[in-house]
Each structure stands twice: as structure tokens, then as C-alpha cells.
Request: fold
Amino acid sequence: GRRKRKVMKRTAPRSTLRKIIKKHKPQLRLAANTDLLFESFFIFSFFPLLKVHLNFIAFLHRLAEEARTNAFADKSKIVKPEHTIAAAKVIMHFEYF
Amino acid sequence: PLQPPGPKAVPKRPGASRRKPREPKIASSLIKKIFSHYVKMPVTRDAFKIVEKCCERYFKQLSDDLEAYSSHAGRKTVEMADLEVLMRRQGLVTDKMPMNVLIERYLPLEYRKLLIPVAISGNKVMPSK
Reply:
């Protein structure tokens, strides 16, 4: 039969994301604070934090796939630190160079 | 029975009592959840620690990039466009993989509704072009 799909809750920790960016870049602002009242009105307004969250998930997705590939190549049935470290090297390289 | 309050308080380790201003971090439970969802195989505890470290580095790099993009555009505010540019550069957004597809793939409905206005109409497909 079909595998039961586990639903992953992906609520974005928006205030944490904001704080993290603020920690690194105190003077940097993020457009359009997502005030709930305004969300329905400003459909077209900007929600960069949601996209930051999206980028973060995509990053973890890539990292996970790469780590998994490394574990396979290593004939390991479990992801070990070295698989993750090697994955990170590749991913960081991919993303930013 | 309830313990008497006060004198029998747990002896605190020196230094543990003062609450340090915590560094903002993504909850490790969330990182673990997302990572395990995609890795689809067991992960050692130490490997998860590495993943967390990677996340910290990722956010540092991300902040640097966002600052670079917005200041390049003469702004002090990060806008959606900056993230689009970033994701193009990361190879996440391409001609074959538009932003909206990524949004649909990664974000729950309530966020999709905010980011992709046409999704608001539910099943009805609105002309998107």
C-alpha cells in the first residue's frame, strides 16, 4: 500500500529568524513586518521572512540529501557526523560560490 | 505531598543561576524535524549537532548576502526581490523551477496564500499570466 505521509508542520519561526538576522546585521531591516491584521489587506506586500524560512528549509533539504548520499556511498545505514560535515562542505560551496 | 518551598531549593551550580542573554537560534527540535523529514534515515546525535552548527553558519552567510544585495540596490531594507536574487544565485530558483513552485513545495498553505495570491481561490485556477 501507499506509505502513510507524515505531515510536517512547517510554521516559520519568524521572530527567531528576524532576531538571528538582527544579531548578524543589526542595522539591516526586513521589509513589511507581518502584522496579522494587515496580512489579508496587503496580499501583494512583501514577506521576506517567509522567504528566508523557505530558503532555510531548502538549505536543510539539500544538506539532508547530500548527507544521505554520503551515507549511502559509505555503505552506512545511519547518517554520521562525517557524512554531514562532507555534505556541508559541498552545500555551502554550491550555495555561495 | 508537596515539598516545602524555600530552604530546600535545588543547589545551583555557580554561574548557572545568572541568565545569560540567549543567542537567537532556531529551535534544535525544528532543525531536527526538518532534517529528518528529508534525510529519511537514522541520524546520530552528533550528526544532528553538526547540522545545527551548519544552520548557524548558514544564517551568518545569509545575513551577509542579504546585506550585500540590499546595499547594492541602495537600500537598508531587505525586500522580496533580494531573496529572489539570492535563490537564483543559489540555483534554487531557475527558469524550470520558478519561485512559486518552490513556495508550493516547501511552505504550508497559510504561507502560500500570502506569497502566491492566486492560491487564495482554492481549487479554482486563476489565470496566472
